[in-house]
Structure formats: structure tokens, C-alpha cells
Amino acid sequence: MLLCTDACGQAMKSLHFLVASAPGHCCSTSYAIKLEVSGSGNQVLPSLTSQALRFGQGQWRPRVPPSTTDIVSSNKSVPMTKPEALQLHHLPDDVLHRILSRLTFRESSRMGLLSRKWQKLWRSCCPKLIFTRATMFKPGNKTIRRTRTNFARRVNSLLRQLCAPPTLNKFVVKFGLRRKHTCHVNRWVGFCSKLRARHITFDFTPGVKGIFRGLADEKYIFHLHVFSVPDRSPAHIKSLHLSYVWLNTATTGFTGFANLKKLTLHKVSFLNDFQHLMLSECTALEWLSISCSSFTELTLCKPLRRLRYLSLHYCYMEKVELEAPNLTSVDLTNRPIPLALSESLKVMEANIKLLHKSVLYGDNLDYICTELPAALPHVQKLSITSTLCIYDELQSFAKTSVRFINLRHLSLYLPLYGDGRSVGGILRLAYLLELAPVLEELELHFRFSDFVIRQAIRVDMLPYRHDKLKRVVMSGACHWQGLIELAHHIRRCASRLDFMIMDPMVRIKGLPTVDWLEERGRRIAKELLKRQEFQGVLTVL
């Protein structure tokens, strides 16, 4: 028989909580829980000490043997007997249901192996069904091709043993299944619909690496009309996570997810107009995440008034036009595209990663300085990752009258390419101070394709007076002459700067470090920046 010690231990913790929170429980109430292990260790018998357990206010009390005083006073010779130990399953069924509901899926299923009563309880009250490699197979089983069919069979066998609870809280399937397993997945989708599952996940990406979208012929076709059959309704679904599927939204009878709050789509292909047939009907949506999926633009005819979080990664869109007045956070990885979010005045934080341009001497600084302020004028914290080409040909660019009027924290992650002696090319970054008049913290993190260090500082560029900037951090900033010039120019502009940190180490993740180059850059930065205006402000790490 499977060892259930860990599951019993978790059950004891849950019981500890339930006793402490039971009606009528007070600090003076005492209880004790004892695990008796007998035999060869393959059987665990949880028991309770009857003399120490108190429940509620007389709702359920274990039988307490007579005390020694009562025996003496009765003038009867009654032999002393050992108190009867109470088994854990002697507790009321509603308490046992609550204990099981607090355990993980794996722990609760192990408790179902203790006895027939535990098995019956588990079958009737399991609120979460989570089917993954970790829950269905032993650790170390890594042969995914050999286990797909076995995985489906085990899930089917387990579902046949369960009694239908009134409502299923969570249903998760995370395994690398493909279209040839359609008959099994159809049965599981129908099971979710029948039991009115609130949080549904079908993730078939295991085995598909990186941002590769996968082969279209392999993907399972997910039909949404299953949730809108006559005796069922999709109104109970609160969150939906789909990965590596074809999504069919044009089936007849589908009425939309009226109460859906969170939608996550990863490596999803669309058979028809996903935006107007499905997304526009999700009026309660608060969280939308789409990644590595195939559609070119996000434009909706209806507003998403409750949407607070928007994430779009590697979808290669051409346009985003959205009316979301309560949007507070934006996370975007894409080529530079038009962003129409003018109605989103509550955006507090944005994380933008811009992909490469395919033109000579092309970078995204024009887009950063013109399009982003118009799309996100009220953002307070902004992080941008983009390549920056440093050539003399790029010393000028278009300027705009639009500003980041509330931006206080700006972080730039900039892999640099080009000529390290092109001071004019790197000084274009100084224009960011004009774009953010209330900026307080500026972080500039650089990475280089080659290394050129020159010992010179010029003062021919007129500074822009900035009274709010207090903190500047520049990592990888001691390798190019242009960056030394940029640090000097920022110091001249920021009249109230409290401190500036220059770190010669490259802090962008996934990049190697060169110790001798860092030490050389550190030494040159200290020599170049020992000027009067840097005294008491500059720190070189």
C-alpha cells in the first residue's frame, strides 16, 4: 500500500487550522493530535486523544471515560480501562471535507488510499483536478513520446472514479498532447463544461521550445461551443488558459464568456475572427495575455472597461487599437507599431521590448521619443529594451511636443552597435530628459558589440536644465567614449542630482563579462570624471 505519511501530516495541519477557527473555539481550548504508526510502516493510523479534543459548543464531543474520583465515589469496583483512541475519520464529514479541500491534489489523492471512507470522501469533494507530469508520473520519467497515451489513459481512469461535485473550482491539464489525442481532450473539455469549472487550463506546450509556434497540423482544435450547449452555460468560467491549440470561435451557439476575468493564450492559432467573435464579448475581462500567437492586429469595436493588465509578446502585430479606460499595466514585445491607447489614462507601469529593424543604420529611438509619449503620456514607471545604433548618420531625429507628463522612473536596456567614437550618436539619449520633465530616477544599462575607450570630454553641447532628477545609474558605461560624454552631459543638466552610479559591469542578463575590460573602464572613468561638478555625487563601482 502507498505510504501516506506526508498526506496525513498535511491533514493534521489542516485539522489544526479548522479546530482553531471552529465556532466557539477559545484560547483555553486544548487539543492534541497523535499519529500512531504500527506494523512494518506501511499503514498509518491517525488518531485523536479523546481527553484533549474539544469541538464547538456541544455540537460534537468525543466520549470521555469517567474520572478516577467518580469511580471511588461510586463505591463500585470498576477496573481501569485504557481510553479509546479516536480515529481521524470519526470526525464529522463536513470537517473531513474541509481538510481534504486544503490539501494539494496529490496529497488528497493519497489520503483516498487510507480506507474506503477516505476514498469515498475524496471522490465526492475534490475541488481541484490538476493533471501534469508531476502528479501523474514518478519523478525522472522524461520520455514524453512514450507517456502521452499513458497520460491520457490515467486521466480518463481517474475521472471515471470521481463522483460529480456540484462545482469544480480548478481543472488543469498540462502535458504535450497533440491532435491525435482529440478524443481524450474532447472528453475532458466536456467534463469541465458539465461540472461548471471556474478556472480551466489546457496547456499542450511541453516539448515545444522557445518562441517556436509549432506545426499547425499538430494542434488540438478547441471548440468553444461546448460551453454553450442547451443545458450548460459559460457564465461560470472565471479564467481560461489555452496553449498550443487551434481556437475555433465561429461555431454556432457560442454566446461568449460573460464573467471571464483572466484570459491567457500562448502559441494559439485562430480559425476565424477571434477579436470580434470572442474577445469583444468578454466584457468582464481584467487580465489579457497573448504570446507567440498568429494574428496581425488587436482592434476591438467594443471597449473593455474592466481591463487592467495587457500583455502581448512575439505576436508580430501591425497595430494595437484598444479602448480600456481602467488599464494600469502594459507589457509588449513587438516591432515598433502604432499604439492607440489614448483613453487609457490610468496606465501606471509599462514594459516595452522593441525588436530589431531591418534597415541600415536603423534603430528605435525615433519611435521611443515620438510614438511612446503619445501612446502612454501618463505612465509613471517605464522600462524599454531596444537595440541602439551609434553612427554619425543618426545624430538628428524628429522631435515632438508630446511629453511623459507623469514619468518618474525610466529604465533603458540598450545593446549598442556601431562606432564607439560617435559621440553625437550616443548623446541623442540626452533628449529623454526633455521628454520626462518630472523624471526622478534614470537607469541606463548598456551592452557592446566592440570596445572603444577614449579619454576626452567635450562641453560644446548646451545642457537642458532638469530640476527633478535625483538618481542616475549607468551599467556597462565605462567602455565607450560617447557614454562618458553622456554621463557628463546628464550631470550638467541635473541641477539637483543626489548621486550618480557608474558600473563598468554589463548588467543585461545572459551576457558574459570581461574582467580586464571592466577594470580598465573603471580606472578611466575615475580619471575622467574627477571634476568639480562630480564631487560628492559620483560613485564608480
UniProtKB/TrEMBL annotation:
<feature type="domain" description="F-box">
    <location>
        <begin position="85"/>
        <end position="134"/>
    </location>
</feature>
<dbReference type="InterPro" id="IPR036047">
    <property type="entry name" value="F-box-like_dom_sf"/>
</dbReference>
<dbReference type="InterPro" id="IPR032675">
    <property type="entry name" value="LRR_dom_sf"/>
</dbReference>
<dbReference type="InterPro" id="IPR053772">
    <property type="entry name" value="At1g61320/At1g61330-like"/>
</dbReference>
<protein>
    <recommendedName>
        <fullName>F-box domain-containing protein</fullName>
    </recommendedName>
</protein>
<dbReference type="Pfam" id="PF00646">
    <property type="entry name" value="F-box"/>
</dbReference>
<dbReference type="InterPro" id="IPR001810">
    <property type="entry name" value="F-box_dom"/>
</dbReference>
<dbReference type="Pfam" id="PF23622">
    <property type="entry name" value="LRR_At1g61320_AtMIF1"/>
</dbReference>
<dbReference type="InterPro" id="IPR055357">
    <property type="entry name" value="LRR_At1g61320_AtMIF1"/>
</dbReference>
